[in-house]
Specification:
The chain has 772 residues and is of the alpha+beta class. It is 36% helix and 22% strand. The structure holds a DNA duplex (11 and 13 nucleotides).
Length: 772
Amino acid sequence: MRRITGWLFDVYAFGDGVSVWLIDAEGAAHHLHDTLHPTFFVHGAPADLRRVCEWLTRARLPVRLARVERYDVFARRQMVVLQVAVQIPTLFATLVHRVATTFPMLDLFTADLSIAQVYFFERGVFPLAFCEAIVNDANLIVAMNTNDSRWALEYRLPPLRVMVLQMEGEHLNPNHGHRGALEITYEDRTYGISADDPREIIARVRAYLERGDPDLIITRWGDSFILPQLLQLARRYGLALPFNRDARIAPRPRPARSYFSYGRIIFKTMTHTLCGRWHIDLENASLLDYGLDGAFELARLTQQPVQQTVRTSTGTGINAMELATAYAHGYLIPYRKREPEEFKSARALMIADKGGLTYQPIAGIHHDVAELDFGSMYPTIMARFNVSPETIHCECCLDSRAPELGYSICRKQRGVVPDTLAPLIEKRFAYKRAKKDAPDAERKEWYRRLASAHKWLLVTCFGYLGYKNARFGKIEAHEAVTAYGREALLRAKDIVEQRGFRVLHALTDSLWIHKRKTQDVEYTELVAAIERATNLPIELEGIYKWVAFLASRVDAHNAVPHRYFGATRDGELKIRGIELRRRDTPEFIKQAQQAILDELARANTRVELIAALPRVLQIAAEYVDRLRVGQVALRDLAMTYCLSREPSAYQMNTLNAIVARELAGRGVNLQPGEAIRYIITDNAARVSSDRARAAEFWDGAWGYDVARYTELLVRAVETITQPLGLDAPALRAALACEHPNGQPRARLVTPIAPMAFGPLFEFAASKSIQQK
DNA sequence: TCCTCACGGGG
DNA sequence: GTGTACGTGAGGA
């Protein structure tokens, strides 16, 4: 018997059990084994259940059968079900599938959890949990204990050996034609790998993998290009390439797929996840603004393996947490609903119409404006008013009803969704507090990342509630939440106005208000009064020195609700909806807009804002100059767009379509949902293929269209200066730019700037934590 | 002027 | 392994 303490690193099914990897405090990886009997349940007519039993027994499948009672959350009663305990984890999914297809008349429960999830649930552990394993001489786990908790605010992470694998040069898509030598970085040194003989390349990658033995391989385009290419070469020459630390398992890629989400097509490339090691492809990971530290927190919380966590949405994370809640209660978990896509009913459309409240702001610049926000409004509503798919339309609580709609909501039994959310809201709040009191900047940043990871979980949980195919989704629950939200905002608006404030703008969970000569204590009283009236927490988000609500570009008399920017008293900028916030704005334009806003953030009064205009023009002029002398790098000029359809399906001859067709013509297989990057080379060119060039096939010789980029810059500057009285024609005059119409030909400039590397990844904060 | 196309919010 | 619907702006036809 041995005792091993360390962080739970990886879990997967293998042989007749599961493989479990721990990493200890010295950084050593331990490969252990455990048994697991994942269990699913079957419900149906007694005769059908007997047939399943006979079928399973006759086929001599490795299962233990029992008749048990379990609680069905949706039916809200105990049910007699057949329990099928699968003795060999690798057979679990296959068996479930065979039962489901052979006996379509039966209902399956708790049947589509991953083996890793079941293992975590059964052993009371989670990814990166610090635990203790007692193992026998065959490395079989006899007992597993942990004092670590998913709800622990402070925790240590294992010392990870990291290797970086990428192609030299700009991080352009190799699948779209970018080529560069392979680079491997570990222990602070970078090795270029170029050889004429592919066998030589494989041998060197293999040597580095064996020598470095990394826990974590970070790549760019590793999922879709580097790993598949290397593995294919290795296969062709019959060489072993130990990406998997578990040498018994050959790398098994999962194919690319497209799906419809958020009103558009999303494309996911193929993935290469590893066994006994992690692979994170930065080009195929959603680390948003929380980085690896946030991803580790999400893996711990949602009990999904790290490699899955970074490759899936936070919506999946919330779903996983809801499953964990249901599992812990011993509830039957409904098998994945797979209803085919259907057209929205008229009713569903009406509901959508009544989401959050949206006001039309008073356009222009306002001074001394307070913003009040209901923090995490929708999740808090779900938690506080017990809104969950199985608590809505409750028959035992007819006197407890959601506003407007009158749906009854159970008061006696806590719903799965509120039960999942309550501790999550609590933990996020704790991290926000910790961030405020952090002893140093590094620590503050670590808390910020963790709070941010939580934010994304909470934001998506509401959408999931309205998602037809979600296990814990129901449209009426979704409606009830927005109804509570509207009621709260309206009450808040009344209270604010009663106290003599003018509401300048209101949006779902926020109010922008103003009153002459307000004392700060009035805000404190206001917040308290609103909280009393709504039973929801509201905060003074900040007091703006000035804030601009933008007029519509189509109709200058109308303000639009989602485009505004402003500076608070502590000099912080809040920016929504404008170019700076958009994915498809070139980096160069974003930088210019940011620089101008930073300048304006220093102004405190109307007079100071106007006085800042010459400096704003100066900044704009500098950016125009940089464009003219060709000092802007490819990375800053690239236009990035997601394609919504096949290249040939475009009706309009937009730059997107032109570049998509260019790439397709070069043999690139572009999928709807995939992103393309390009440089505008000559926007006015008669031959459309000359107008823009895919970034992967652009070099200095092509130059870029100065006039076009200048025009984009002028528009972005106008967004900021228009409320101050400087519109595009005035800007063009001031900056000596020609008007885009009536312009003969764009002047082309060849850039001279070298293209440097940006930082690869951020890992500093978690490193420092583990050293403490 | 209409249509096509892509994007954001949330904290 | 997948949150929805709508409003906004840019630009081609």
